[in-house]
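Run Galactokinase through structure prediction, thanks.
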Amino acid sequence: MNTQAIRDKFASLYGEAGTLYTSPGRINLIGEHTDYNGAFVFPGAIDKAMVAEIRPNGTDRVRAFALDLGESAEFGLKEEDAPSQSWARYIFGVCREIQKRGGKIAGFDTVFAGDVPLGAGMSSSAALESTFAFALDDLFSLGLSKWDMAKIGQATEHNYCGVKCGIMDQFASVFGKAGKLLRLDCKSFEYEEHPFDPKGYCLLLVDSCVKHELASSAYNKRRESCENVVAALAKRYPEIKFLRDASFAQLEEVKNEVSEEDYKRAAYVIGEVERVLAVCEALGKGDYQTVGEKMYETHHGMSKLYEVSCEELDFLNDLAREFGVTGSRVMGGGFGGCTINLLKEELHDSFIAEVKKRYEAKYGIQPKFYDVVISDGARRL
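Sure, done. The structure for Galactokinase is below.
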């Protein structure tokens, strides 16, 4: 990310220089739709990030400029001062959530930009929230913990942006470490770092450039399916609070008490919980073949059991398998977006060429490609 353009714009708008802060987007290697089931996710921060230059301005107002959009916003710090632009609401929300927790902040000037691709499922919004949570903590000596920052970002989404997201995106953006994937337990909030340094392999995201409209209503429906199965299981096993607590054997016992659809959804989740743990173990041994197999299994489950894939993503997944890519799956909520691919470095260029040719021939659109490297989380530059 070239910071000079940010510096130049800041100088032209506000004069004296401020301090630069950054926070990254994220990938999730495996563990999809597991967060709200109290299970594990396995994200890492990436080398694509938001960067903001910030300086307190001695007033009670925020003046912000979004360089990528060429738009400015100005707003106060009281609840009724909410700005109209959606991008500005992320910054405003972070300010308000800090204040709700007793943090004393004042007005500031900022210019920000980023190279986290929008709409590709790499959490540009979490990167933006984490940048400002980290920066305001540093500038105003708030004494926030990293967990506070992640929760401030999540609460911003819930209360100011209308998205009832889990904690994974903000967690990865704040806690990320170069060369480490983070296995987060979404029930206890304990996490472990796992080295990820795949010699001879690389991570490539292929953006299908489609987004099907189903996403939000379908997401809620799947949460409901999981809750229905938990309710049926809890009648026999009161200790089961989340699908994460259940085994396949227990699911079989209630098969006739839940709908076929709910059963399929639960079977995917219970399988995914096991796959995350298997991938962690395989990584510890440097066994990327097993990691890749588990990624393909996840794609199959998301496509056939959880039914959150789509024709284009299935096509990209089939193509990856045919081409000898080690592992590939849909990443994120589904219904469009990216596949994440683990492949040998020597296949990288020829795989991209093949996907471009075949995908465009079939769908008439060019997919996009993003190489990602596991990198550090929120920090001052």
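The CA atoms of residues 54 and 367 lie 35 Å apart.
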